[in-house]
Specification:
The protein has 8 helices and no strands. It has 193 residues and is an all-alpha fold. The protein is globular and about 55 Å long. About 13% of the residues have low confidence.
Length: 193
């Protein structure tokens, strides 16, 4: 079964002509690529376009993957540069995020509607809402570190900056995220009372 193979094994099979191996790589990473694209794009269609472009670029450049870092780090650097190029072309105002369509739920499929599941969805909703209100750079760093489980060094490699700079940016992004959560939840609490 292909899904149990490592990324490197799937890459080798793809380079050997096995197209289904690349499809498995796409399936493995598509959710996170889409989530990162949503942090930059204003709408779902734009994020889908960015994600699709990323996988096409990755496929075309697969032979040049040096294997000095994880495939996911290499792929996320493609997402970052593709999203930046896309935004420059569209000249989209990425600091104003108003629509509910921006938020993506990335929880596991619910097994039952119990209190824990509802609470988890609620937490995830407010967290995604707050992340969506951050500047794209802050949202990207938060998303890559916590949801993508990328190390500071891997994020630095993707963004083309020093690891210490990432550490500082992550600290500041957390602070801004905390402020957004406090403001959003304070507003929600007032609505409940």
């Amino acid at each position: 079964m292909q899904s149990k193979l490592s990324d490197i094994e799937l890459i080798e099979q793809t380079l050997g002509g096995n197209q289904s191996a690349y499809a498995d790589l796409v399936k493995r990473h598509q959710r996170f690529v889409f989530t990162l694209a949503m942090r930059f794009a204003k709408g779902r269609e734009d994020a889908e376009e960015i994600a699709q472009d990323c996988f096409i670029k990755a496929y075309r450049s697969l032979a040049s993957f040096q294997r000095q870092s994880k495939f996911s780090t290499w792929l996320y650097s493609i997402v970052y540069t593709t999203a930046m190029t896309f935004l420059r072309k569209k000249r989209v105002d990425t600091t104003s995020i108003d629509g509910e369509d921006v938020f993506i739920q990335i929880e596991n499929k619910p097994s039952a509607y119990d209190e824990n599941n509802v609470e988890s969805k609620s937490r995830s909703y407010y967290l995604n809402q707050a992340i969506g209100q951050l500047l794209p750079d802050d949202a990207t760093i938060i998303t890559m570190f916590y949801k993508g489980e990328q190390s500071l060094e891997e994020i630095a490699q993707v963004l083309g900056i020093e690891a210490n700079t990432v550490k500082v940016k992550l600290f500041r992004a957390r602070q801004r995220l905390k402020e957004k959560l406090e403001r959003n939840l304070k507003h929600e609490v007032k609505e409940l009372i």
